[in-house]
């Protein structure tokens, strides 16, 4: 008979909810027995990775017996030059996800509160749960816009951090520069603001801020970004955070020495300077967003105008059935029920052909 083990995990770990990722292409291929599957579920770059980054990875494979640079010296220097910060103000991570965990481990004590817009990216709550901290969700306002008043009203003596995701996943809405200014001016000085601008490169509105200027002005802000979206490097896992060195220094104490592998460091440095790939990705996304809007308009569907590389679509009570129907046709999108929005799906902006296939399948399902 198998022995029952009596090892208890930390209480906080028992509460952790598993992350629910977009279904991978291979899984749908296996389940449906079809080879052509379109994935519009994880806000990936439809153009693929920067070709220059792929080339750089290929030529560095012979060095895989070496440990990666624990300081990520070259990548931090490249980021420092690109964004005009000092290397000491930068930390790189195994994706922005790791940085969210590291920030949580560095700053949150059990019982602390974090304020998180709702709906938003689930990893903020994960980080809080991991530390036994409490997530205070603040619903977004009309049209899923930010309300600074609502965020401020959620502040209590236990508030340790506020997350702002801009553009916000899964709504695509953003916080304007003047809203962020107002929030930072009003928040008590001991509250950390984590400004997640993973989708910053896709923004086309003038009154947006990527948050960097507020770090320069001395506010307690950490800006998060990723190489998974515009740079097309989601599979290799690399992201970065920028903030005043006194904040970054503490996070560095928590990170594992070799958290970002050598291929990721090499790829990120090259992708950062591949402006051609970045520009092409940006324009394909802007055109794709318009293509989706136009198609959705023809289908008389409501959507939220997005500053990111995905669009939130209102389908009413049929949303789950439409999601399942799209899946059966080999098109993977995200059902927004997982974010408490049972009447919505979120579709990533694909290339022209992918968007067209999605709109056609949607039309067939709604007919
Ligand atoms: C808002 C937001 N932040 C962070 C991440 C995580 O990025 P990474 O792939 O670098 O872990 C994502 C990924 O989807 C995201 O949507």
Provide structural commentary.
The chain is α/β, with parallel strands linked by helices. It has two domains: 120 residues, Aspartate Aminotransferase, domain 1 (Alpha-Beta Complex), CATH 3.90.1150; 223 residues, Type I PLP-dependent aspartate aminotransferase-like (Major domain) (Aspartate Aminotransferase, domain 2). It contains 14 helices and 13 strands. A seven-stranded mixed sheet has the order 2-8-7-6-5-3-4, with helices on both faces. Helix 3 runs antiparallel to helix 11 and helix 5 packs across helix 10. The longest helix is centred in the C-terminal third of the chain and has 24 residues. The protein is globular and about 55 Å long. 45% of the residues are buried. The mean pLDDT is 96. The site of pyridoxal-5'-phosphate has 13 residues, from helix 5.
Q: What topology emerges from the helices and strands here?
A:
Elements: H1 11-15, H2 25-32, E1 38-39, H3 51-60, H4 73-83, E2 90-93, H5 96-107, E3 113-118, H6 123-130, E4 134-139, H7 148-153, E5 159-165, H8 177-186, E6 192-196, H9 212-216, E7 221-226, E8 239-242, H10 245-254, H11 262-273, H12 275-298, E9 302-304, E10 310-314, H13 319-328, E11 331-332, E12 334-335, E13 344-348, H14 352-366
Parallel strand pairs: 1-11, 3-4, 3-5, 5-6, 6-7
Antiparallel strand pairs: 2-8, 7-8, 9-10, 10-13, 12-13
InterPro entries: Aminotransferase_I/II_large, HisP_aminotrans, HistidinolP_aminotransfase, PyrdxlP-dep_Trfase, PyrdxlP-dep_Trfase_major, PyrdxlP-dep_Trfase_small
Pfam family, one: Aminotran_1_2
Keywords: Amino-acid biosynthesis, Aminotransferase, Histidine biosynthesis, Pyridoxal phosphate, Transferase
